[in-house]
Design brief:
The protein contains ten helices and five strands; from the N terminus they run βαβαβαβαβαααααα. Helix 8 packs across helix 9 (about 175-190). It folds into two domains: about 1-135, Response regulator (Rossmann fold), CATH 3.40.50.2300; about 140-210, Arc Repressor Mutant, subunit A (Orthogonal Bundle), CATH 1.10.10.10. Helix content is about 50%, strand content about 15%.
C-alpha cells in the first residue's frame, strides 16, 4: 500500500482528494493537514511514502514545509499539487526536492498516476511546468562537465534519460548498489539535491539531447 498524506488549506480539496485516492486498491490515505506546520509534524509521525502538498497556505506555506520535510526525511516523496503556475515557486519547489509538480487543473487519473510514480521515485510534471523547464534548459552552451569520472558521466546521462537504478545497472552491467553509489557521488560533486536536479544539469550541459530526455 502507498501511504499518502494530503496537505491543503481547503477542506473540500482534502476531502475530494481523499475520496479519489481511496477508490484505488493500492493507496491508503493516512492523514490530512491544513497547513505546513501540521504537515511537518504529521510527516514525522505518520511516515507517509508520498505527500500531496499545496504551496499556497496560511502560516507555514508549502515551500517551507517541503524544505523541512525533505530535511527530516529525504526518502519521503512530495508531489506538489497547486494552482500556482509561476516560474519562481515552480523552480524553488523542484530545487527543494519536490518529486513532481502538478497544477490543480490536472485530471484525477493524472494525480493518481503521479502518486504511484512518486512511490517509485519517478517524477511527473504538468505540461505547463515541463514547457517552462525546457525553456530553462535551452540556454546557451555551458562549460563541459568537470570532476566526474567517465562512469559517473554515463550514469548521469542515464538519469537524464529518465532511467531508474535497475535499468541503469542493466545498461552498464553493474549492480544497483554501485549505481546508487555513483549517483550519490554525482550529487555530492555537483552540489545537487536529487535526481531531478541532476537531470536538469545534464540537459543544460548538452550531455543528453532534449528529444532523448
Amino acid at each position: 500500500m502507498i501511504r499518502v498524506l494530503i496537505v491543503d488549506d481547503h477542506k473540500v480539496v482534502r476531502d475530494g482528494m481523499r475520496f479519489l485516492l481511496e477508490q484505488e486498491g493500492d493507496i491508503e490515505v493516512v492523514g490530512q493537514c491544513a497547513d505546513g506546520l501540521e504537515a511537518v509534524e504529521a510527516a514525522a509521525g505518520l511516515l507517509p511514502a508520498v505527500i500531496l502538498l499545496d504551496l499556497l497556505m496560511p502560516g507555514m506555506d508549502g515551500l517551507a514545509a517541503l524544505r523541512r520535510i525533505k530535511a527530516d526525511s529525504p526518502s519521503t516523496q512530495v508531489v506538489i499539487l497547486t494552482s500556482h503556475a509561476g516560474e519562481e515557486p515552480m523552480f524553488d519547489a523542484i530545487k527543494a526536492g519536490a518529486t513532481s509538480y502538478l497544477l490543480k487543473t490536472a485530471g484525477a487519473s493524472e494525480v493518481i498516476e503521479a502518486v504511484r510514480a512518486a512511490a517509485r521515485c519517478e517524477s511527473r510534471l504538468d505540461p505547463i511546468v515541463a514547457a517552462r523547464m525546457l525553456q530553462e534548459v535551452r540556454s546557451p552552451a555551458h562549460p563541459p562537465i568537470d570532476g566526474l569520472t567517465p562512469r559517473e558521466i554515463e550514469v548521469l546521462a542515464a538519469v537524464a534519460r529518465g532511467r531508474n537504478n535497475r535499468a541503469i545497472a542493466d545498461q552498464l552491467f553493474i549492480g544497483e548498489e554501485t549505481v546508487k553509489t555513483h549517483i550519490s557521488n554525482i550529487l555530492s560533486k555537483l552540489h545537487l539535491a536529487d535526481r531531478t536536479q541532476a537531470a536538469i544539469y545534464a540537459l543544460r550541459r548538452g550531455l543528453v539531447p532534449l528529444d532523448e530526455s
